[in-house]
Amino acid sequence: MNILLKVFFTLITLLVFEMNISPATIDPKERTIVLSGKILDRNLNEMLSGVSITTTASEKTMYSDLNGHFFMYIRIKDEKEFKLEFSQVGYRTKTLTVADIESIMGNLEVSLLEE
Question: How far apart are CA 70 and CA 53, in angstroms?
Fold first, then answer.
């Protein structure tokens, strides 16, 4: 009986694995980008912690750390619809597109203005 359970779970695992990497589920237009950088107060030139970073690409929200740094992987399905929003209470929301991000080489440096 024990061998039958092992065979059963092995088959189930293989089926699940095959379903996840099936070519039919891979979108050739989809790509993954890595974003990292820091967020600053534009007037004071100080790092901002706890800034909300939201993307329309994966509906994911991340936050800058205590030193104003952030790091995230984002899957982009539709570049025309992609937006990355940086927001914090008391500051104006800043929105970036894929073109904005790709025009900046290296780490992003985002500065927010107080309202």
Answer: 9
Q: State the residue for tokens 């940086």.
A: 86
**What is the reported pTM?**
0.68
In 1-115, where do the E strands start and end?
Answer: 31-41, 52-55, 60-63, 69-76, 84-87, 94-96, 108-112
Whole-angstrom distance, CA of residue 77 vs CA of residue 28: 9
Q: What are phi and psi of 66, to 5 degrees?
A: -60, -25
Nearest to 32 by CA among 73, 84, 79, 87: 73
pLDDT, tens digit, for every residue of 30-62?
777 778 889 999 999 999 999 999 887 667 788
The CATH code for residues 27-112 is 2.60.40.1120
